[in-house]
């Protein structure tokens, strides 16, 4: 396949190297146009991959079968809307990011649109991307045109296992959102790695009570207990990880809070709920963000 990877951060570099290893033709696409981009990845089994890829070639883009979007949630809709006119009508667009709300921002898209969530864990160490732990990528259709593309899961699975197809990807997205609503802002509040959050059981329960109430009103089958079990399992399996939100706060970058807790609060409001503990954490993260934005001026 011919594949353009939009966004060459940690996840983008992991996909670029994995897809090329599998024999696909790949290019990177960067916000600031460059003819080349490089990937410097240490795989979970300790292999160092150092490769250069072509980048920002509009002809390659127009011939691509897949646009794999690995940007942060808040970058997605603007970037995809800018590239959409350059894509062929059959080019599938796959969004892989934390949080929800980008589909609403994008609105109707002519191309097949797919949404995905991933549990691959990676971090930047200087100029190197350390692919800390292999995970699972769940993908599924986000519009009618995307519904026939289940074979894509098989193709991607060969490059970077595991990849699973879901006809109803929204349920997987909501469950991942719930985990991110618990772990990400809590890790900022306590300034700690994911595993250190296991002691805050009362806070976890309070957050999950509110999240489950919103999810049930949104038509999802869930309970506070099952969300707590899921969040605790992820804290255990990613115990040594620093959450992406805490990494962003420490590096004074914009976080994905608007697409994680912010999305939950928007749905809560639409359902007549207030979710006060989630709101408190949302404001805590927003305050930290605005503090360093003010410092920059
Ligand atoms: O997705 C994550 C993130 O850090 O954004 C979790 C699941 C919390 C793992 O760190």
From TrEMBL:
InterPro entries: 6-PGluconate_DH-like_C_sf, 6PGD_dom2, ApbA, Ketopantoate_reductase, KPA_reductase, KPR_N, NAD(P)-bd_dom_sf. Keywords: NADP, Oxidoreductase, Pantothenate biosynthesis. Its EC number is 1.1.1.169. It comes from the Bacteria. The gene is apbA. This is 2-dehydropantoate 2-reductase. One of its GO terms (cellular component) is cytoplasm. SUPFAM superfamilies: 6-phosphogluconate dehydrogenase C-terminal domain-like, NAD(P)-binding Rossmann-fold domains. Belongs to the ketopantoate reductase family. One of its GO terms (biological process) is pantothenate biosynthetic process. Pathway: Cofactor biosynthesis; (R)-pantothenate biosynthesis; (R)-pantoate from 3-methyl-2-oxobutanoate: step 2/2. Catalyzes the NADPH-dependent reduction of ketopantoate into pantoic acid. GO terms for molecular function: 2-dehydropantoate 2-reductase activity; NADP binding. It is an enzyme of class 1 (oxidoreductase).
